[in-house]
Amino acid sequence: MQKCLAVFAIFFTFAAFSVRSQSPEKAPIASPKALTWDAVSIKPHRALDNTAMTRVLPDGFEMQNLEIHSVVIQAFPVRSGDQIVGWPAWTNSERFDFRAKMDAETADEFHKLRGNDASNMWRLMMRQLLEDRFVLKYHIEKRELPIYELVVAKHGPKMKTSAPDEPGTSMMSPGKLSAHHNQASDPSGILSGIVGRTVIDKTGLTATYDIDLTWAWNDDPSAGETGPSVFTALEEQLGLKLDSAKAPLDVVVIDHLERPSEN
Predict the structure, then answer these.
(1) How much of the chain is helix, strand and coil, in % rounded to 5?
(2) How far is CA 210 from CA 140, 158, 168, 231, 241, in A?
(3) 180, pLDDT greater than 50
(4) What is the pLDDT of residues 24-74, one digit of tens each?
(5) CA–CA gap between residue 111 and residue 121 (Å, rounded)
(6) Partner of 209 for a Cys bridge, out of 118, 159, 223, 258, CB 3.0 to 4.6 A?
(7) What's the rounded Cα separation, in Å, for the pair 230 and 214?
(8) Torsion angle in degrees (nearest 10) through CA of 60, 62, 63, 65
(9) H helical segments located in the chain
(10) Domain residues of the chain, as ranges?
């Protein structure tokens, strides 16, 4: 689960950079104008400091000491890491420092995009980076995978109904999610990254709620962190639970991926 948490942290950071998208299952669509990076720097991480860092910039992003998984998951409309398979062995141990930059005109065009257009353009640009620098080749196929269904727990929902006409907002930090004027289905994409499986909303709830959820972010007992698991927190704090199930999902199969040339 530790890798799921690391990948999810990147996913959430980039979601904030682009904009909240609609349905991650839908195939990416072309934007009116294809945008490209002006400059991309990728180097093997050699610093003695093992801290991983991600920083979103107005013209792109920086990532330090991260596996390639963190970039690949940004390139496709998937909800969890198990929807990408076929990783070469080196991707589990080698880490890189990334810096991708748009020129001023491209950054301005990107920030004009909204909704699915922005999310799909971001994925397209990430695939361009991977195809150019890592020689990525892939195909999509349907596979039946374990999922979680988000359902109402035995004693009913415990979420507070939002005030009318309140704007929708959400904030995420390790072990804490606060979302206001959101539907019960909205956190399903976030939960997918946390639990490492695609989460599908089956609550049937249609109202909007104020959602506050806290749980133990680090699942390593040696870290000394206390608190409920996300599964327990969902039931105790929100009156929701995750039931195991299976469903046919689109899976990205990596056919080829090379180490990048350093620059």
Answers:
(1) 30, 30, 40
(2) 37, 10, 9, 19, 17
(3) yes
(4) 344 444 445 689 999 999 999 987 777 888 888 999 999 999 999 989 998
(5) 11
(6) 159
(7) 8
(8) 150
(9) 2-17, 69-72, 104-112, 115-133, 188-195, 230-233
(10) 2-142+250-256, 144-248
- Least confident span in 30-34, 77-81, 233-237, 254-258: 30-34
Q: Tell how strand 137-152 and strand 199-201 pair up.
A: parallel
Neighbours of 74 (CB within 10 A): 24
d(CA 98, CA 93): 16
- How many Å separate Cα 199 from the centre of its chain? 13
Quote the Cα angle for 145-148-153, to 5°: 160
In 53-168 the beta strands, taken as DSSP E runs, fall at 53-57, 60-66, 84-85, 96-101, 137-152, 160-161
pTM above 0.70, yes or no: yes
Which of 52-56, 76-80, 167-171, 188-192 holds the top average pLDDT?
Answer: 76-80
Sheet with 96-101, edge to edge strand ranges: 39-44, 96-101, 60-66, 53-57
Structural contact between residues 208 and 159, judged by C-beta atoms closer than 8 angstroms: no
User: How many Å separate Cα 133 from the centre of its chain?
Assistant: 22
Residues whose CB is less than 8 angstroms from the CB of residue 226 and which lie 6 or more positions away in sequence, other chains included? 216
Ramachandran area for residue 156 (φ above 0: left; ψ -120 to 50: alpha; else beta): left
- Whether 84 contacts 252, CB under 8 Å: yes
Task: Give burial (CB, 10 Å; 0-12/13-18/19+) of 166.
Answer: exposed
Q: 65, 51 in Cβ contact below 8 A?
A: yes
Return d(Cα 252, Cα 87) in angstroms, integer. Answer: 10
